[in-house]
Amino acid sequence: MPGHDIVVVGASAGGVEALIKLVSGFPADLPASVFIVLHIPAQSPSLLPGILSRSGPLQAAHPSEGEAIQQGRIYIAPPNLHMLLEAGYIHLVRGPKENRHRPAIDPLFRSAAAAYGPQVVGVILTGSLDDGAAGLLAIKRLGGVAIVQDPQEALYPGMPTSALQHVKVDHTLLLSEIGAVLARLAREPVIGEGNHLIPEDMELEVRMAEMDMDALNNGETVGTPSVFSCPECGGVLWEIKDGELTRYRCRVGHAFSTESIIAAQAERLEDALWAALKTLEESANLCRNLAQQARERDQNWLVQRFEARLREAEHRAELIRSVLFQDKLLPTIDLAATQD
């Protein structure tokens, strides 16, 4: 009878340091497979496998598509790919972003729960916003174990705090304590292994992350239509209720927690303001040039018209510039989550 031998870990801002400390506490004979998602920019090479291999007794690597799962190994999601679990192997896919990230934490956690049920242990470490809470809730729904880093120790407590608020967590631990608990859980026989029933909504979300074309083309949806549009593609967002946790997903699969959608909207707003500022400054320059040309031709009525338009463009540009340069007038965008 297997133990809790599928360990999935999610981290974001401050995650490299936390993961180094975490894997240093693993025993060399850990009878489990460890899967890690760290939010990293898509264009950045990942040095994490080498760093973690040097930091603890287990070897870490980016898996290849279809690679068989082995115990005593650490698998790290490659840049710009979701890492999903199937029974016995790893699936890599360039699916829709979740919470503005690919790789993302929730798809890994959700797919692990669907594939392995109560064998799964989910671990949420330091990070901004509320990523990972939905995935950890999926693990608990199918009988798995939830572990959260103590928010007081986390460099960025947002993710651990959100998980504690929305999930009935089994253990809240310091990083130095997690390795020993994982080793103990991996050796404890799982009750009810192989008998878990996957909820239809969870199965559909796993299929969407896998870019299952039947799920995407047949109009299957989770939740109810909301009044909000997807910041990624502009489609309608569907509101999903997981207990007290509210989140959103569009028809093509982009998914957002409440905090991540606010952050995404703030980014789109800033982009729009910069574009408007550029247009107004170009308009002001054009009016200035046209006014000067009219002045040289003694066309005073045209001078007055272009100077009026110039003043109006400069006034509007100054208003937008004041918004852009005063952080308190814009929703806070925490960019730390993308810096690891």
Put the structure in a nutshell.
With 340 residues, the protein is an alpha/beta fold. It has helices spanning 15-24, 48-55, 105-116, 133-141, 158-166, 175-187, 200-209, 213-217, 258-296, 300-324, and strands at residues 6-11, 33-38, 59-61, 73-76, 82-86, 89-93, 120-124, 145-149, 171-173, 224-229, 236-242, 245-250, 255-257.
Amino-to-carboxy terminus distance: 38 Å
Any idea what the CATH superfamily of the largest domain is called? Methylesterase CheB, C-terminal domain
Order of strands side by side in the largest beta sheet?
3-4-2-1-7-8-9
Number of domains: 2
CATH topology name of the largest domain: Rossmann fold
Helix content: 40-55%
Task: Please give the radius of gyration in angstroms.
Answer: 25 Å
How does CATH name the architecture of the largest domain?
3-Layer(aba) Sandwich
By secondary-structure content and strand pairing, the structural class works out as: alpha/beta
Q: N-to-C SSE series?
A: EHEHEEEEHEHEHEHHHEEEEHH
Number of helices: 10
Unreliable runs, pLDDT <50, ≥5 residues?
329-340
Oligomer: single chain
Largest sheet: 7 strands, parallel
Question: How would you explain this protein's 3D organization?
Answer:
With 340 residues, this protein is α/β, with parallel strands linked by helices. It has two domains: 6-187, Methylesterase CheB, C-terminal domain (Rossmann fold, 3-Layer(aba) Sandwich), CATH 3.40.50; 269-338. 41% of the residues lie in helices and 19% in strands. The protein has ten helices and 13 strands. It has helices at 15-24, 48-55, 105-116, 133-141, 158-166, 175-187, 200-209, 213-217, 258-296, 300-324; strands at residues 6-11, 33-38, 59-61, 73-76, 82-86, 89-93, 120-124, 145-149, 171-173, 224-229, 236-242, 245-250, 255-257. The strands form three sheets. It has a seven-stranded parallel beta sheet, sandwiched between helices. A four-stranded antiparallel beta sheet has the order 10-11-12-13. Strands 5-6 form a two-stranded antiparallel ribbon. The two termini are 38 Å apart.
